[in-house]
Amino acid sequence: MSLYHVQKLLYQLNRDEVIRAQFTNDMDSVLAGYDLTEEELTAIRAPDIGLLYVLGVNGQLLMHYAALKKFEWDDYLQAMRDGVAEHGPVRDGIYAMVGE
Amino acid sequence: MPLVFAGACSHAPGITGRADRADPVLRDGLYEGFDRMRRAIEESGAEALVVIGAEHFANFFMNNMPAFCIGMGETYTGPIEDEAWLGIKRTQIPGTPDLSRRLITNIMNEIDVAYAEEWQFDHGIMVPLHFLTPRYDMPVIPVNINCQGPPLAPLHRAWKFGKALRVACDAAPEKIAIVGAGGISHWPATPDSGKINEEWDRQFLDRFINNRRRELLSYTDEETYRDAGQGGFEIRTFIAVAGATEGATGEVLFYAPIPIFAVGCTVATMNVI
User: What is B3-186+196-259's CATH superfamily?
Assistant: First the structure.
């Protein structure tokens, strides 16, 4: 599990339009720069917003990735709820602070 | 000149980005509260506005996370977010690097702060500026208190930071306004978005406007997370303002839970003494 790298990728995508453009045109070339597990790569590529939430990604990063992937606000919230239903409680990060 | 204005307000992105989905009576009441704050800042004669924000991984990340950071740029840009998503057009905001440098130098007598000559404002600063300096013509000094990535500065350090900021402002010839921009209880950007603990908020605001130091500093992060969500960590922005106005009282100009804005929306001012 490399939550730090997942979150760093989303941080860079959110703040750097050059990386964002590269990610859109050639996702794998961007992903190669981060130490990510197969599960994380799958969640990012799909994108599986619910799984990213369960993996522990902070919503302040995740909501912008969801918007980049054209999720409307209500769909973003529902995707996280669906993720918990499918994958179980949040495993890491700030939302695992006191458990689910 | 001494500090000429102090207040605190919400910064949630839904306030501008999802404005059309809110109860219009509550939304317009909030906007009127912001407008009262804007007029009070203008009437104070403030020449610069210090916004004590709690940004959300726009400039600071866990690779190098300062507990406290102050901007020292000639200009800033914002919002970093998609313009349509936030409902605010991207623009340049003037800084005042000479004043920033003097404030930072003075504050460092008490608190070790980082500084930044580049800063892309996210909603944490842009939403307040959208209402308080809508022409973006007042020099702004951004301050960030890390409220997102623990470990976080303890509350008593946020208070002490506010006190040090006050001393620094009072030593400057410029008239300075400060605004804390953060949420009270909220669970932003999570499946619980829209949940608001109104009772907790009202108790916190009562402590804030009556400047009850001991009670304001009594919250543990575990209690705050349980009762006020992860967004509750942003009370550090209010507590810094309370430290800067130690001994004063204030007034809540507006408070109402607005779920689609995902926070108990607040506008409050402190009497600067």
Answer: LigB-like (3.40.830.10)
Cβ–Cβ of B188/A58 closer than 8 Å?
Answer: no
Q: In chain A, whose CA is at the least distance from the CA of B221?
A: A97
Looking at this predicted complex, what is its ipTM?
0.92
Chain B positions touching A6 (Cβ under 8 A) are none
> Which CATH number is A54's domain given?
1.10.700.10
Expressed as residue numbers, the domain containing A22 is 3-96
Over residues A35-87, the pLDDT tens digits come to 999 999 999 999 999 999 999 999 999 999 999 999 999 999 999 999 999 99
Number of domains in chain A: 1
CB contact under 8 A, B61 and A84: no
pTM summary value:
0.96
- Helices within chain B (DSSP H only): 14-17, 24-43, 83-86, 97-107, 123-132, 155-170, 198-209, 213-216, 221-228, 235-244
Q: Inform me whether the C-beta atom of residue A4 falls under 8 Å from chain B C-beta atoms.
A: yes
Strand partners, B48: B176
